[in-house]
Write a structure and sequence with these properties.
The strands form two sheets. The protein has a six-stranded parallel sheet with strand order 3-2-1-4-5-6, covered by helices on one side. α7 (156-168) links the parallel β7 (148-151) and β8 (172-175). It is built from eleven helices and eight strands. It is an alpha/beta fold and 245 residues long. The chain is 34% helix and 13% strand.
Length: 245
């Protein structure tokens, strides 16, 4: 597929590289310019491009940008065909990674808010796994213990496209239903960054609790401070799991 990843940070850069290795035609755009795309991302076969040229003639656009800034891309997306699948990987961390947003604090689902800012539907995927998990723990389909990643969106066809790409980068895709239900994979739900298998993930999504999960999210600085110096990805995953025991 022809894929553009907008954002070349830990998640976006990793996805661009892995999707290129999987055989897709991948472009990477960054608001800071082509030079912001790291060399190791381009070594995979992905190509850096200017933001203004990034969205034309593409099958899929992956938004790996800070939560709450999608409105800055509304004009860019105005000419993007309706059939282009747009995937949102962002997460809301008020006071840590973004300013508080009243609509989301009052209960609007994160990716529903992003879709409104952008002016078009989105699919929620790749938000519920740590960047290091995504970088190092992808394995071929059928491998025992393969980690699952939830995918939510209102279009069944768009969900299927996103799920296929999740599989391509080494994880079991799980159909998590419509976008309004994607709050179940937001920070810090039982399904969020806990490295669950396809058998384990449905129960974790069902156990989500908006009030409790938001409190767990907001306690992240204190919980992270209690970890060992230079924590591993396994340390962080165990911290996330322990918050729901």
């Amino acid at each position: 597929m022809k894929i553009t990843v907008i954002g070349s940070g830990a998640i976006g850069g990793n996805l661009a590289a892995k999707l290129a290795v999987a055989g897709h035609d991948v472009q990477v755009a960054d608001a800071r310019g082509r030079e912001a795309v790291r060399a190791e991302v381009l070594e995979s076969g992905a190509r850096a491009t200017d933001l203004a040229d990034a969205v034309q003639g593409r099958d899929v656009i992956v938004l790996s940008i800070p939560f709450g800034v999608a409105g800055q891309l509304t004009d860019l997306f105005a000419s993007v065909p309706e059939e282009t699948v747009v995937i949102d990987t962002s997460n809301y961390y008020p006071g840590m990674l973004s300013e508080p947003i009243e609509a989301v604090d009052n209960g609007q689902v994160e990716s529903v808010y992003t879709a409104e800012l952008l002016g078009r539907p989105v699919v929620k995927a790749w938000n519920a796994a740590l960047a290091e998990t995504q970088r190092t723990k992808g394995v071929p389909a059928g491998t025992p213990g393969r980690i699952a990643i939830p995918v939510a969106g209102d279009s069944e066809e768009a969900r299927k496209v996103a799920m296929g790409l999740v599989d391509d980068v080494g994880f079991d895709p799980y159909d998590a239903g419509v976008l309004a239900d994607s709050w179940r994979q937001q920070p810090n739900s039982p399904a969020y960054c806990t490295e669950l298998t396809l058998d384990e993930l449905p129960a974790a999504l069902a156990a989500a609790d908006r009030v409790k999960d938001a409190a767990v999210r907001d306690s992240l600085p204190e919980r992270f401070a209690a970890l060992p110096a230079n924590p591993t990805v396994d340390d962080v995953v165990e911290m996330n799991r322990a918050a729901h025991r």
